[in-house]
Amino acid sequence: MRLFLWVKMEKKNAKVPAQIYYARHMQQGVAKYDSEMILVTEDAIKQMMPSFNGKPVYVFHVDEIDLENAHGYVTETFYNELDGWVWSKIILTDEVALEAVNKGWAVSNAYIPTEYSRGGTHHNVEYDRKILNGDYTHLAIVPNPRYEDACIMSCDDYKAYCMSKKAQLDELQNSKNVNPKKGNLMFFKMKKEEVSSIDADTMVEIKNDDGTVTEVSVFEMRDALLNAKKNEAEKEEEKMNMDAEIDVGDEKMTVKELINRYTKSKKNEASEDDEKSNEEDEKENSEDEDEKENEADEDEKKNSHFEELKNANKVKADKAPSYKSHTDRLAVGKAKY
After folding, report:
1. pLDDT for 208-232, tens place per residue?
2. For residues 256 and 263, what is the distance between their CA atoms, to the nearest angstrom?
3. Cα(168)–Cα(311) distance, integer angstroms
4. Domains of the chain: residue spans and CATH
C-alpha cells in the first residue's frame, strides 16, 4: 500500500511536457569579466557553435555538469545573419525552467577557451586577450546576462522577429538604390583623339618591343626624366665628395679612406665587446633558477586562461524557482511513509 501511494504522488509531480524556445546568447565584441577584458570575433563564435549542440540547460550557472538535474538541452546552434547573433534552439523539460522563462529571464552561455591570442584594441577599446576558439559547457537561464540583449523567444516570436529584421534590411537596401535617370549621377566615356597642343591630360602611346602598347601621360614622362637627371647629379656629387681630402691629425686622407679606417676601428671595438659578453654569460647562468621559477609562474597564469567563462553578471538575482531533483523527491516520499 505504501509503495502504491508513493507512485501516485510521483506521477503527480512528473515533469511538464517539453517546450521549444530560441535563445539569443552571444555576439562578437569586447566583454568585461572580473579580471580581464576579452574580445570574441565573429570567426571565433562561429567556430565554437558545433560544440554547443547537445549541452544541458540549467536555471542559473552550475560549477559541475549534472545531467540528471538539467532543465533542458541545446538541440541546434546557428549564426543569424539578420542580426549578427549566435542563437540556439533549446528544449526545456520541467516547470522550473518554464517558470524562469515566464518571469522574463534571459540566457547566459558558459564556455572554456581552447585557443586565444594576446591583447590589443578593438574600436579603441583595450582588451587583454582575444578568444580564437572554445568549447561550450552549458546554457543557463539567468536574470542578469552579461550580453544585455540576450533573450529567450518562443517559436512564434522568433519567426516574427526574423521577418521584422528581414523587412528592415530590405528597406535599407532599397533606399540605397538610385535611379540613374532621376539621380545626380553622371556617366561619361573617355575619347581618344589626336591633339595639337600638350597639357596635363595629354596621353601618348608607346609601342613596346613585344608588340604591346603602353599609354603614358606626357607630363608623367617629363617628371620621370627630371627625377632621373636629379639622381644622376646627386650620384656624381657623392662620388666627388668621396674623393675629397680631409686632415686627420698630421695625415691627409680621402673621405673614402676615412670611412675604411673608421669601419676597421669599430670591428676592433666589437671584438672587445665579445670578450665582455663572455664574462656576462657566466653571470646569466647563475640566474637560470630564478628564470625557471618565473616561467613556472607564467605557465600557471596561462593555464588560468583556460578556465570556464560564464556570461552572466554577478548581481543579486530574484529568488530562483523552487526545484527538487528526482533523488530529493524520493527521499521526501520515503520519509512520509
Report:
1. 777 777 777 777 777 788 888 777 7
2. 11
3. 29
4. 10-166+307-325 (3.20.16)
Query: CB-side exposure of 127: number of CA atoms within 13 Å?
Result: 23
What grid cell was written down for 314? 554577478
**pLDDT tens for each residue of 47-69:** 999 999 999 999 999 999 999 99
